[in-house]
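thread from #wetlab-drylab

HS: before we spend reagent money on co-crystallization trials with zinc ion, can we at least see a predicted complex? here's what I'd submit
DV: go for it
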Amino acid sequence: MILALALGRPAASMAQAAVALPAPPSPTVTRPLPLPLPLPLPLPLPLPLPVVPPAWSEAIDPLTIDDEDFARHRDPHEWTGLSVRRLIFSDGEINWTVWRIVNEQHRDGPLWVLPHDNENATFDAVLVALHSYGGIAMAIDDRAGRMNYDATSGASVDPNRHFYDAIPLYTGRILADLGDPPRLIIALHTNTPGFDPSLSLCPIAGLGGGGDISIRLCTARYIPHPSLTHSWPFDDDDTVALVPYAVDGDWRTGFCARQLSMAGFNLITERVAMSDGSLSNYALFHGLQYINFETRERGSDAVGLANARSRLVAMIDRMMTLCGDQQLLALRPVAADKGRR
Ligand SMILES: [Zn+2]
């Protein structure tokens, strides 16, 4: 109960956070990456958010910029009311490029985070979602790949395993638009079909695959709550919502978890003892509202992208109806998604 109360409190204001900030790390602190440390339980008040100087950025024209995601979206109507900037910064030896896309008429929406540049349907879905619910999207650009890399060692760096308090610059810049009170964070992913059966505590004969997220997978961390109807978009075991909760807590304290489960979602609740550097874990330990939508990767041809995009958008729409800010819901009727089911 103490934990639930603590997590329910608003995160520290930016002003408070600035006072409590540790000194920035020297460039060598990020190599090797800090080991995740177990957190004392019950958790203290949510940890303060980092406050960092803004990244260098430039306005870009989405209709002409040389990038594979934007190249799929050259219709000016898709960009009406949206502005795009390219942020470039260096986090030690790691260089980051991030697209920041803002609904200029409705900035007060979620913070949309797209960590993986190879998951193309997430980019297509977030353009729909920005028109529907406003807000600001941060999409990491990795030259169409999943991973970034360390320029010195060449080691690959997963953008969604880099959210540590010991690396405040990266997190501070990705979450710079959270605001106070912090807005809801919605992360979007696609994933490889199925899962490695050796990972599962509830293996099912005949089921397997190469991924690591599925509603059929049970581990100490990932607890599945499958849809009872398996109706679209949950006729696919890789189409899930995921919310974190604390190891000694109750999964129903996860953002919208109870409502999503009752509404027939494929829901994974992530039971977190120590951070793995993912944004979901970072959000939990900082008292931030967070939800992740995942769907099966269906390739980057038009049919595959439209299928995956419409599943992501359907989950977003249903979640927003159940748990979203009612003022944001009022925006939705004016949004036009030609591909929406
Ligand atoms: Zn991903």
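DV: The chain has one domain: 2-10+43-334.
HS: ok that's useful, forwarding to the group
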